[in-house]
Design a protein that fits this description.
By secondary structure, the chain is an alpha/beta fold. The protein folds into two domains: 2-45 and 97-205, Ribosomal Protein L4, Chain: A (3-Layer(aba) Sandwich); 50-90, no CATH class. The protein has helices spanning 20-23, 29-43, 102-118, 135-144, 160-166, 182-187, 195-205; strands at 2-6, 12-17, 122-125, 150-153, 172-175, 190-194. The model has no long low-confidence stretch (mean pLDDT 93).
């Protein structure tokens, strides 16, 4: 499929052929959901914790005799039925990460790129470069492109001025090509790829 290449002033400066193997796949929401769950599970800290009976401070003495009191038998005041006692089967510190094969992860990234292209929310830029690191100037140029919520993916080396200027613009993210991922692509409304990013993504994903 063909796409128009634009510059930051929203002027058409050429055309580029997008590979159907990367940008022309059918949308599979099941695959995208699996990938997003995998990404979010990996970033969870997993440091939630409750105390078991061995970790509660207190005496190990039996509170009262087994028989003769008329009350229910008790072995420890650190048991869960008492105030300040243990938690049974509570959360423990652990990793939430799970496995997802490399082939599935690669297909999910191609599917996310294809989904944006199918929705008409893919813009190809000639280059993501700025003359100054000032946010105001870049924000005005992005406004001419109609970008209010966008992920901008450049080649492997980001333009330093562009990266700095975009930092303070709400809902605008900038990533190098090697950082392209399904979650960030889906969480922003528009996907913006530079010519370099398209070439490098196609070389990596074909």
């Amino acid at each position: 499929m063909k796409a128009t290449i634009k510059n930051l002033n929203n002027e058409a400066v050429g055309e580029i052929e997008l590979s159907d193997a990367v940008f022309g796949l059918p949308t599979r929401t099941d695959l995208l959901a699996r990938m997003v769950n995998w990404q979010l599970a990996k970033r969870r800290s997993g440091n939630h914790k409750t105390k078991g009976i061995s970790e509660i401070s207190g005496t190990t003495k039996k509170p009262y005799s087994q028989k003769g009191t008329g009350r229910a038998r008790q072995g420890s005041i650190r048991s869960p039925q008492f105030r300040g006692g243990a938690t049974i089967f509570g959360p423990v510190v652990r990793s939430h990460a799970h496995e997802l094969t490399k082939k599935v992860r690669k297909l999910a990234l191609k599917t996310a790129l294809s989904a944006k292209a199918a929705e008409g929310k893919l813009i190809v830029l000639e280059a993501a470069a700025a003359e100054t690191h000032k946010t105001k100037e870049l924000a005005a140029r992005l406004a001419t492109l109609g970008l209010t919520s966008a992920l901008i993916i450049d080649g492997s080396n980001l333009d330093e001025n562009f990266a700095k200027a975009s930092r303070n613009i709400p809902l605008i993210d900038v990533l190098p090509e090697q950082g392209a991922n399904v979650y960030d692509i889906l969480r922003r409304d528009t996907l913006v790829l530079t010519r370099n990013a398209v070439e490098q993504l196609e070389a990596r994903l074909k």
